[in-house]
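As a warm-up, study this chain.
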Amino acid sequence: MGQLDANFFFRSSNFLIQSREPMIQGWNNDDYLILFEEQNEAIKMSERYVVSSSLPGYALIGLKSWDDFILQDAKNQFFTIPTVPLDLQYLQPFVFNVDLTKLRADQRFADKIRWFIKPIIFGGDPSADANTTWLSIDEHVEAVKWWNQFYRDAKQNKPST
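Now compare it with the structure written out below.
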């Protein structure tokens, strides 16, 4: 994929609305969404999560149900990928059909992200309460970066079969 203009999704997509808040959060059916609606916030979060270096050609739009990033490519196609691992083999097409005015805010989860202490890719149990915690966005950024580096290191050191 060629170099991606970081501003493409703001020029070519109308899902973003103007607001004083840098993120929109709330329930869309059974999915809790955290969307980076302002251009500067989305670019900043893409850099913080190292999405552009891990997944060149994709822009970070937000999170879906805490476990998946929502991405967009230069062709305005949407995808989801687990936050761990950020590996193209796990990229899935995503129909981004969300009416932002109908998102249902939930103060219990505002600015919090559910996190599996031991990620599922490493054998963590998503149904075990002891494997679940709630992180701030800053803590989530650090956890995602650490576990993705751990994944890359483990993948490189894995013996060939």
